[in-house]
Design brief:
single chain; about 425 residues; alpha/beta; Molybdenum Cofactor Biosythetic Enzyme, Chain A; Molybdopterin biosynthesis moea protein, domain 2; Molybdopterin biosynthesis moeA protein, domain 3; 4 domains; 6-stranded mixed beta sheet; about 20% helix; binds adenosine monophosphate; binds magnesium ion
Length: about 425
């Protein structure tokens, strides 16, 4: 144990307060992207992060095809006349093209998605057709050459990069890859995340509560937040506030994981061993952020694993996870980082706040009858009120210097969908 590490851990009040932005920047600088990759079938790659560019070997569409049910015609037959009378020489269905060549005075019955036959260049909707036996007539006033044709390569050209590395593969990406015929992709391996809760007061669900006990909710909320990321979870349970227990849990976690998360035990309370033990086993970068909820946050390195000691209060744990841990996970899994998705909304109510720390208040974002985006509050903002995270669908970002918000003012809001 180095004396300086011990000093720094035992004197938290001497640590400077960092802004949220500074904290996040330091974290993102410190964590590394996993380099290992795996080759997965398309379906198994859902939710994973692409590790190599995907280039299309085909055009999509790969042939000119019809956007409508109707008749494929030659535009030159329709030019310079009010009405055109054509002979129907065959049909082109999706998957069953017309084999021949269409010549002057001829047309082909065509369905959506069917190949536009050789010789034709324009599709006329069947609603405008007047068909009698194998002849069809059209008024030409509404016909524009080339209409209702979906051209080869309009969506993707052969040789185009359809997806760049760093892209999280969602439903649209999996569909896009399938549309260019890709069966397997290279993705970064799942990040290994170990986590445990600390606290003598914590009881697992399914067990009756003893005097002074509470249920451990953080591990469940953490598991839920982690489940959406490209990770593999190691749930190490509840660890009592005992130095040796905390120490061995941290060691065990660091052995299996790229990222270790704990909740509780990072404030200045007497039984808070996490930061102290971390100072002995690894390195702490900081632990006080000018934010509310969630001021105490330990961040550091345990052997080769990155470490976050999240606050014990359930709302603080979730908010700090979203603001700091999630961006770190994104970088570690190789996902391209984006700025927080912030939208401006009219604040429906007054929000109380003292200048000093940045606040993340739980908000309910909705669209008013007049179409204006409006946000209201879930009410009391105590960091122990987990129900507020369930009522909310966004975090209202109030900058450190803000002294509160009047009803009707604009505020910045981060919808929860930014955390998916
Ligand atoms: P701590 O950060 O350990 O001082 O805990 C702060 C508050 O959060 C205390 O009221 C704890 O009882 C509560 N707390 C700590 N861990 C958990 C947990 N895993 N689930 C629910 N509440 C917790
Ligand atoms: Mg505790």
């Amino acid at each position: 144990m180095s004396p300086s590490a011990t000093d720094c851990c035992l004197n938290p009040a001497e640590k400077p307060l960092l802004s949220v932005a500074q904290g996040k920047a330091r974290i993102l600088q410190a964590v590394h992207t996993v380099t290992a990759r795996e080759q997965l079938h398309l379906r198994a790659a859902l939710g994973r992060i692409l590790a190599a560019p995907v280039v299309s070997a085909i055009n999509v569409p790969c042939f000119d095809n019809s956007a409508m049910d109707g008749y494929a015609v030659r535009s030159q037959d329709c030019a310079g006349t009010m009405k055109v009378d054509l002979s129907v020489v065959g049909s082109s269905f999706a998957g069953a093209p017309f084999a021949g060549e269409v010549t002057a005075g001829q047309c082909v019955r065509i369905m959506t998605g069917a190949v536009v036959p050789n010789g034709t260049d324009t599709v006329i909707m069947q609603e405008y057709a007047n068909r009698v036996d194998d002849r069809v007539t059209f008024e030409t006033k509404n016909i524009a050459a080339g209409q209702h044709v979906r051209y080869t390569g309009e969506d993707t050209r052969s040789g185009d990069t359809v997806l760049e590395p760093g892209k999280k593969l969602g439903a649209a990406e999996i569909g896009l890859l399938a549309s260019v015929g890709i069966a397997e992709v290279s993705v970064s391996r799942r990040l290994r995340v170990a986590f445990f809760s600390t606290g003598d007061e914590l009881t697992g669900v399914g067990t009756p509560l003893g005097a002074g006990q509470i249920y451990d909710s953080n591990r469940y909320a953490l598991h839920g937040m982690l489940a959406k990321a490209a990770i593999e979870c190691y749930d190490l349970g509840v660890i009592p506030d005992k130095r040796d227990a905390v120490r061995s849990a941290l060691q065990q976690a660091a052995e299996v994981a790229d990222l270790v998360l704990t909740s509780g035990g990072v404030s200045v309370g007497e039984a808070d061993y996490i930061t102290e033990t971390l100072g002995e086993l690894g390195e702490i970068n900081f632990w006080r952020i000018a934010m509310k909820p969630g001021k105490p946050l330990a961040f550091g390195q345990l052997d080769s694993a990155a470490f976050f000691g999240l606050p014990g209060n359930p709302v603080s744990a979730m908010v700090t996870f979203y603001q700091f841990v999630l961006p770190a996970i994104r970088k570690m899994t190789g996902e391209t980082l984006h700025n927080p998705l912030l939208v401006q909304a009219r604040c429906a109510v007054e929000l109380k706040k003292a200048p000093g720390r940045m606040e993340f208040q739980r908000g309910i974002l909705h669209t008013e009858k007049d179409g204006v985006l409006s946000v209201s509050t879930t009410g009391m903002q105590g960091s122990h009120l987990l129900g507020s995270m369930s009522q909310a669908n966004c975090l209202i970002h109030l900058p450190a210097e803000s002294a509160g918000v009047q009803a009707g003012e604009q505020v910045s809001v981060q919808p929860f969908l930014d955390f998916d």
